[in-house]
């Protein structure tokens, strides 16, 4: 039987990322014992204290063990902190050290959504790949440049260290772990019980491009705003570099450092974000949207759109455009 420690960190946390894995692992045990088989998981809540209060006192969780107790675990689940992520890491320095110690003692570790910040703080994934919520991608890259962030992925598996994409996609990682530790059949059963799309591999269709403006490079910020106001026009790197009063090569380096995107990538992502908004509206077809955001080549538009969202423009429109509710 695999011992699973679901962490209850200090500070605020997304309670669902504790309760959700707990419920899925318990469901697996119920299914197995109902078939006359031994349970697969011994699930416990572990934290720095015996109890913790979240969401301004709405939720109270009692832990089964504290980190101060002498025990070994097989799998650590790191839930998603809520609020200031730098503060969450600082508040949980002891927890981060405990995770590192348990990993070196043979435990596997899985982070859920923003839990990637606590995982990265351990140093265990320096030089390795990781996923987190797309909303926190830029902040993660700024805090942990030694980690290779895969902002579009739902799941990463790095030799006993796992991570998930944003929000409820953590359930896909939990099912992945169930499949790995028990069987595909049991994971599929749980997917049907909890109505989870087990085949999802990317969070790109859900990503909203917000740019990266949390920097102090004023010339680059001016160019970003210009791109976002003039994206349907044909914009060139030379034109934008001249606007910033920088040489082209120096401009491109500064732009990439500030935004985590090349100039061309930034223009494409701004255009595709506008295209997504157009496709979500009833009545607008793909060609109209394509021309409105500055593309004239159908093949190029389709290729860029799919590279960024994981869907073709038509697939995106069919999935997300507004449909009147039936009376």
Write up this protein.
The protein is 46% helix and 13% strand. The chain has 327 residues and is of the alpha/beta class. The protein has a seven-stranded mixed beta sheet, sandwiched between helices. The longest helix is centred in the first third of the chain and has 19 residues, at 16-34. The radius of gyration is 23 Å and the shape is globular. It contains 14 helices and eleven strands.
For this entry, give a set of tags.
single chain; 327 residues; alpha/beta; 7-stranded mixed β-sheet; two-stranded antiparallel sheet; 14 helices; 11 strands; 46% helix; globular
Strand order of the largest sheet: 5-2-1-6-7-11-10
Helical content, roughly? 40-55%
What coarse outline follows from CA principal-axis ratios? globular
How do the helices and strands follow one another from N- to C-terminus?
Answer: EHEEEEEHHEHEHEEEHHHHHHHHH
Measured between the Cα atoms of the first and last residue, the distance is 52 Å
Supply the number of helical segments.
14
The biggest beta sheet is recorded as: 7 strands, mixed
Low-confidence stretches: none
Tell me the β content.
5-15%
Spatial extent as radius of gyration: 23 Å
The residue-averaged pLDDT reads 95
Number of strands: 11
- Please give the oligomerization state of what you see: single chain
The structural class is alpha/beta
């Amino acid at each position: 039987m695999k011992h699973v420690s679901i962490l209850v960190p200090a500070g605020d946390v997304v309670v669902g990322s504790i309760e959700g894995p707990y419920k899925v692992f318990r469901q697996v045990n119920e299914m197995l014992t109902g078939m006359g088989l031994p349970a697969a998981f011994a699930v416990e809540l572990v934290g720095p204290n015996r109890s913790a209060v979240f969401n301004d006192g709405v939720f109270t969780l009692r832990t089964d063990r504290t980190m101060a107790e002498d025990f070994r675990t097989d799998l650590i689940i790191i839930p998603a902190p809520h609020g200031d992520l730098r503060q969450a890491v600082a508040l949980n320095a002891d927890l981060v050290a405990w995770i590192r110690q348990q990993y070196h003692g043979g435990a596997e570790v899985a982070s859920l959504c923003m839990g990637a910040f606590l995982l990265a703080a351990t140093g265990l994934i320096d030089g390795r790949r990781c996923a987190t919520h797309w909303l926190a991608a830029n902040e993660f890259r700024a805090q942990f440049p030694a980690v290779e962030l895969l902002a579009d992925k739902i799941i990463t598996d790095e030799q006993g260290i796992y991570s998930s994409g944003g929000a409820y996609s953590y359930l896909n990682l939990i099912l992945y772990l169930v499949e790995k530790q028990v069987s595909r059949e049991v994971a599929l059963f749980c997917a049907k019980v909890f109505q989870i799309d087990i085949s999802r591999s990317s969070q790109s269709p859900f990503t909203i491009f917000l740019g990266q403006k949390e920097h102090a490079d004023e010339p680059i910020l001016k160019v970003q705003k210009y791109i976002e106001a003039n994206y349907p026009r044909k914009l060139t790197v030379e034109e934008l570099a001249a606007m910033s009063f920088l040489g082209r090569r120096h401009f491109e380096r500064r732009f990439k450092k500030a935004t985590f995107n090349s100039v061309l990538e930034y223009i494409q992502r701004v255009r595709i974000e506008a295209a997504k908004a157009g496709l979500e509206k009833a009545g607008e077809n793909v060609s109209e949207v394509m021309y409105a955001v500055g593309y004239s080549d159908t093949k190029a538009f389709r290729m860029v759109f799919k590279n960024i969202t994981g869907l073709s423009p038509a697939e995106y429109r069919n999935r997300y455009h507004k449909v009147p509710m039936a009376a």
